[in-house]
Design goal:
By secondary structure, the protein is of the alpha+beta class. The chain is 15% helix and 29% strand. It has a six-stranded mixed beta sheet with strand order 1-2-3-4-6-5.
């Protein structure tokens, strides 16, 4: 459907067991399929799974916030934070947040007593913020709008923007952002 995106989570079945999974729409009616609020251009959602490997359990959340409405981005971020952070279970939150770090969405996730850390900033010096978006041409534009945020006990080992291509062809208008973490 060209008017709706479904953030997906892939995992290694031999390494993780899915204990539970679900989704909710980033709107005032999160249980209503394809619901929209706050002038969002498209229906937006958060997808999650509770993954377990021997003796370890955590939430993996994937989202794609609105590219037009700053209010929809902020309200969606609040919904995600208010849903998962109080659960006191370790979290990996990944997505296209359509906003650079230090903006209102980033502050919503990182501000106050938030247990989240930005995997990029955990390893890279301040000010070193590569753009993650391009127009399928490999020329970076804008800011780092794709993030991976984690809580303890995750420790960041590596964080990088992947710019690989095949004969100048890219699979997306975003460079993949990758973080490797220890648990």
């Amino acid at each position: 459907d060209p008017t709706c995106q479904y953030p997906t989570i892939f995992y290694r079945a031999g390494r993780f067991t899915v204990m539970d999974s679900g989704e909710f729409w980033l709107s005032e009616t999160p249980g209503v399929h394809r619901s929209i609020s706050w002038c969002s251009a498209f229906p937006r959602m958060a997808t999650y799974g509770i993954l377990r490997s021997p003796g370890q359990e955590f939430y993996f959340i994937n989202t794609h916030l609105d590219h037009i409405s700053s209010d929809a981005r902020l309200q969606g971020a609040r919904m995600i934070r208010n849903h998962f952070i109080p659960l006191k279970t370790p979290v990996i939150l990944a997505g296209d947040f359509n906003e650079p770090p230090d903006g209102p969405v980033f502050q919503e996730f990182m501000g106050g007593d938030s247990p989240l850390q930005d995997t990029w900033r955990a390893l890279h010096p301040p000010g070193e913020e590569p753009a993650t978006q391009h127009h399928f041409d490999g020329r970076p534009r804008g800011a780092r709008i794709d993030w991976i945020l984690t809580t303890a006990p995750f420790r960041v080992r590596e964080a990088l923007v992947v710019t690989d291509n095949v004969n100048g062809r890219y699979p997306s208008d975003h460079f993949p952002y990758m973080a490797e973490v220890d648990y």
